[in-house]
Amino acid sequence: MASPTEIRKGRVLDYQGAPHLVIDMQHRTQGRQAGFVQVTLRNLNNGSSTTNKFRSTESVDFMHTETQKLELSYKDQEGYHFMDPETYEDIVLGDEMVEDAKEFLVENQMYDVLLVDGKPCQIQLPAAVEMTVVTSPEGIRGDTASNVQKPATLETGLTVMVPLFIKEGERIKINTAEKTYVSRA
Fold first, then answer.
1. How many domains are there within the chain?
2. Per-position b or e across 70-105, b if 16+ CB within 10 A of its CB
3. 2, 12, 59, 146 - which has most CB atoms within 10 Å?
4. Are 45 and 77 found together in one domain?
5. Do 87 and 120 fall within a single domain?
6. Are 88 and 134 in the same domain?
7. Residues 122-146: what's their mean pLDDT?
8. Which of 124, 139, 174 is at the close of a domain?
9. What is the extent of the structural domain holding 179?
10. How far apart are CA 52 and CA 163, in angstroms?
């Protein structure tokens, strides 16, 4: 058991019998009263979020976590199949576990998977991923004003705005947090 003041963003704690990821954390004090930690938690089993307050006199239970690099092999009706490059073990993550990351998952790329007590729970996306442009209309002559952009559909179905010089078949970097074009790969 640990003190709530040890709670940090990204840690996983056992809350109401289920693993919860700390999304946001703020330490607050109110006048003469004891301080508390206000946290936003995401249930790793069902994806729901909740906000809770932990008084400094309470205790919390952190779960053992580790991050493992896995390669995305393919997707089928069972889910997303990841392979451990060292043991060649096949790990399947269901659609509910990859809901937020689905549009950034490209086959044969490495991803960090959060394991809680040895069980995969969540994909941790990198800051930027490389993807191939599948469709992108040609720029119209005369559209050369500063910073003109056009829509481009990527290999996962994600559509982002890109500069006019990007053509079909090119590899580009996409910011995963903002879903925006960064640069050519």
1. 3
2. bebeebeeeebbbbeeeeeeebebeeebbeebebbb
3. 12
4. no
5. yes
6. no
7. 81
8. 124
9. 128-184
10. 43
From residue 161, give the alpha-carbon distance in Å to each of 94, 135, 141, 147, 153.
29, 12, 18, 11, 9
Q: State residue 144's pLDDT score.
A: 63
Q: What is the pLDDT of residue 48?
A: 83
> Does 93 lie in the same domain as 55?
no
pLDDT tens-digit readout, 20-65: 988 888 988 877 777 888 999 988 877 788 999 988 788 888 888 8
- Distance, CA of 6 to CA of 17 (rounded, Å): 20
Kindly state the percentage of the chain with pLDDT values over 70. 96
Is residue 135 located within the same domain as residue 169? Answer: yes
- Sign of torsion over alpha carbons 83, 106, 123, 45: negative
